[in-house]
Amino acid sequence: MGWELWSRQLDEEELVVNGEYDEHSSSSSSRAAGMNGIGHTKLVDPLEDPLPGVGTYEDFNTIDWVREKSKDRDRHREITNKSRESTVALLHSVSDAFSGWLLMLLVGLMAGALAGGIDIAAHWMTDLKEGVCLNGFWFNHEHCCWTSNETTFKERDRCPQWKSWAELIAGTSEGPFAYILNYLMYIIWALLFSFLAVTLVRAFAPYACGSGIPEIKTILSGFIIRGYLGKWTLIIKTITLVLAVSSGLSLGKEGPLVHVACCCANILCHLFTKYRKNEAKRREVLSAAAAVGVSVAFGAPIGGVLFSLEEVSYYFPLKTLWRSFFAALVAAFTLRSINPFGNSRLVLFYVEFHAPWHLVELAPFILLGIFGGLWGALFIKANIAWCRLRKTTRLGHYPVIEVLVVTAATALMAFPNSYTRMSGAELISELFNDCSLLDSSQLCGYKQPANTSDTGLDSLADRPAGEGLYTALWQLALALIFKILITVITFGMKVPSGLFIPSMAVGAIAGRLLGVGMEQLAYYNHDWLIFRGWCSPGADCITPGLYAMVGAAACLGGVTRMTVSLVVIMFELTGGLEYIVPLMAATMTSKWVADAFGREGIYEAHIRLNGYPFLEAKEEFQHSSLAVDVMRPRRGDPALAVLTQDGMTVGEVETLVESTHFSGFPVVVSPESQRLVGFVLRRDLLISIDNARKRQDGIVSASKVVFTEHTPAQPPEAPPQLRLRNIMDLSPFTVTDHTPMDITVDIFRKLGLRQCLVTHNGRLLGIITKKDILKHMAQIANRDPDSILFN
């Protein structure tokens, strides 16, 4: 996100030279540490104490999981060994083991508190577009009317304390003038909120726009995007998320809450050395934070853990599972303590159904699954096409104007229809709602049965549709078309925008329409074969709210391709364990139907659109190529740039590093033998040489650079040697030239490698980087291989 900024940064840092950025990436391992023998007195070893900066990564680079895990194991072994020596060391060992759980507690508390604040502020500002409370401007509509004694059950939204803008300005709430005045105020507030949101994002934190989940998936796979999870991004995302949701745009706050929780985790990681200094350990915490984000977004702690496991995490050990569970629990508890909606629930659209469903209803549930899958596939194709248009045309140069135009169009079309005027969460709540006899909602505009007294309030019989319901169904049909079209152009703008709520709203509308249709069909045709035996006259057979819930799950599943986590989130939302089968049927159907049009979910599609180096675990490699076909150098390319273990001077090494743009270099015995010794990182090499020149006596351009264990003899007048064995990875990953590429791709995925060296009979032939694999896979799929870059 913030592409203009990225391209500028890349130009400044010269990370992309000739279209390539991560060529010979690194893997220097701390396993080489401690292997320095004591040699000649003139010998210089700059790394007896590790230098600051050695072993760290530059921006837009991939981490080396193997090296990071190895560093952590060494650190842990050292603490364990020391803990046997003294009580202080034992206490240090205990605090080190406990620090992970303490960090999870802090992440849960911070994310829960922020989510509560966002919920309260968004609810208040959404209502501000329609009017203001005279008791205190900080009350939203619902809270304003709670204390009033003049509200009736029929009109619980109307109370003298709450004034619409027309009443405040013109003194009347009826008539065309009042309507136009309210309409205008609605549009003005919407434009103000969205303008503030997009301006703050542009000025202070370009990374705060969008949903954040595609970038978090990429970061969790080992990529580094500095500032994406920083404090400015957190502050601006929290503020602008409230503004964007309140502006009435077709977006949700659930996706961005995952980004907010990950920002909290990243900032809190800096309090603990174990997580501050190790990128792989930090990613374990970020995986848990993703679970926290969904936990506070939907009030679904278990669903959050499963979401992190199924959808965003790349590396998810068992320890992370327990910690995610704990953090999600703490976050949900914190949110429950804040009680943002005043109903002891964690979400606005909590519902409880108790009516049983019948086997015959599986057919319409599967129909909803098919609709969800079709909508998901259509939405992904349309949204990616629109986002590509935004990137490749002048439209992308005017983000502020784009946001204002879309907001104005949304507000203009949304206000006349009460179902599009309300916020997404309120709409879903309305659609999930089951009708009781005293319900004043238009969706409950049925003709009342004559013998009301005989019918219990709880088991309400199916009734014929009345005028109110027909009006509501027309409005819902229009709302469905509006939501489908406007969400395509809204997702991906330069404001924080989640996709969960708009997708669920589309599905819930479709589900409610089908549910009411089924209900009326059953009412008028009790004697049909499919209804006979279980749906007798006067019984409550069909629950339209349940259809809305199943439709919401189907559409969200079609867009994101979530399955297990989605079903769990839905039944945690609704408390309806008996509806697991309908939810599973609809979710699975929607995934199958959507997969028939393309295997990618919306997040994977955005990752590919932005050119992030992400190896998708779900994508299978089916080509029969070998490592030698993918490695570089290819035929006709210049020879591989290598270092020799004891034959090069400091000047020659510096010339080699400056004349190439690779991120690391293999070390060989000699140019003739090409026998592999190890691998050294460009960044570590430059830092070590620079440090040696400043701090060590006698290091000049003619000094020999030595990677061997024992120092070779040299004439007495020669300058001292520079020993750099400590920064070399003595066990780089290698494959032979005839290794099939599907196995190589699996090695990259499972071990999180940055690069792998290719050998033939022990001689070094070439190198395969993660980017080479992604380019090769793009070529096989007939895509542009040069798109694997930060465009």
From TrEMBL:
Domain CBS: 631-695, 728-785
Keyword vocabulary terms for this entry: CBS domain, Chloride, Endosome, Ion transport, Membrane, Transmembrane, Transmembrane helix, Transport
Highest taxon in the source lineage: Eukaryota
Family per similarity comment: Belongs to the chloride channel (TC 2.A.49) family.
Statement: the UniProt record of this protein carries the keyword Cell membrane: no
Ranges that cross the membrane: 101-125, 183-208, 229-251, 257-273, 285-309, 359-380, 395-415, 472-493, 499-518
Protein name: Chloride channel protein
Molecular function via GO: voltage-gated chloride channel activity
PANTHER family, sorted: CHLORIDE CHANNEL PROTEIN, H(+)_CL(-) EXCHANGE TRANSPORTER 5
Membrane topology category: Multi-pass membrane protein
GO CC annotations, alphabetized: early endosome; endosome membrane; Golgi apparatus; plasma membrane; synaptic vesicle
Subcellular location(s) of the protein: Endosome membrane; Membrane
